[in-house]
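Researcher: First entry.
Model:
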Amino acid sequence: MTPVMISERISALSEQCGPMRTVLNSDGPTDVPPEQADAFGFNLLGGKDLRESVINGPDNRAVLTIRCVRYIDPVTQAERFAVDYWSVRRYWASDHQTAALAVLSYESAVRGEFARPTLPLALERFTRGLASFYDKTDVIR
C-alpha cells in the first residue's frame, strides 16, 4: 500500500470513527491530562505488541522503535489500540478504539520515518528501502 493510499484510508476511517487520540508526546500537548502520562506509558509498555519496526544503533540497542500495541486504557479500563513511537530524541503515542485505524497509523508512522528520518543514519540504510532502513520491520514495500 502506498503512502497516499494509507493517508486516504486513515482519512476515511477517521471520518467514520473519529481521529486518533494523542496520549503521550515529548514535544507538545496531549489529549489526556499530563498527570496521567505515567499511567499511559506504563500500560503501553505492558500492552501486547501487534506489529513492530526497530532501528538499532552501533551497540545493537534500539535507537528507534515504532509499535502497534493492544493495551488497556488506564482511565476507562477499555481495550484500545495504539501507535507507540519511541526514539532517543523524542516519543509520542496515539490510540483509538478501532484496530484498523491504529494499524494504518502505524504503517504511516513507519513509512513517514523512512521518508523523513529523525535520526542521523548511515547512507547504506537507504539502499534497499524499508528492508535496509529498519533492522526489524513488518511493513513491506
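Researcher: Second entry.
Model:
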Amino acid sequence: MRKCLGLLTAGVLLLQTCSFANAQAPNALERAIGDAQPCRSLKTKVSSFGISVEVGVDKLDSVKIENLKLSVNGDAAEASARGTLACKTSDEALVKGGFSATAEVRLKVDLATCKTTDTSIEIVKTGGRFGDIVKGLETEISSALRRSLEKNLAKLCEK
C-alpha cells in the first residue's frame, strides 16, 4: 500500500511538473507567430507635456492562442483561431508601455495550389497603455498576422 501511494505521489508530481512546463511553453503556432515578429513595424506617436514623440511598440511581449479550429474537405481547408498578441516598447525607450490585441482570424486555403482564397482578421479587444491606439494600427497588425500565416503556410507546402 505504501509503495502504491509513493508511486501515485511521484506520478502526480511528474504530471504537475509536465503541466507547469507545458503551460509556459509556447505551442508551434505561437512560436511561428513569434518568429514572424509581427510587432516589428509598429510605431505610434505619444504626446506628453506638449511634446510629441514617436514610440516603437515593436518588441514582441507574448502570443497566446486561445482556440484553433481546422476543417478539411477535399482540397479546401478552413481554419479559424482566436488569440492575443502583446507588443511592448524596448527597455531603452523614453516612453515605456505596450498593448495587447485579441484577434479572431479566419482563413480559407486551396490545398492543391497552396493559395489562400479568403482571409479575415478582426481585432475584438485591446488593452495596455497604448491599447486605445491599436485601432489606428489595425491595418498594420492585420497585415503582419496575414504575412505570418501565409509564410508558414508556404513552408508547409514546400514539404
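Model: Note on the second entry: Confidence is low (pLDDT under 50) at residues 1-23.
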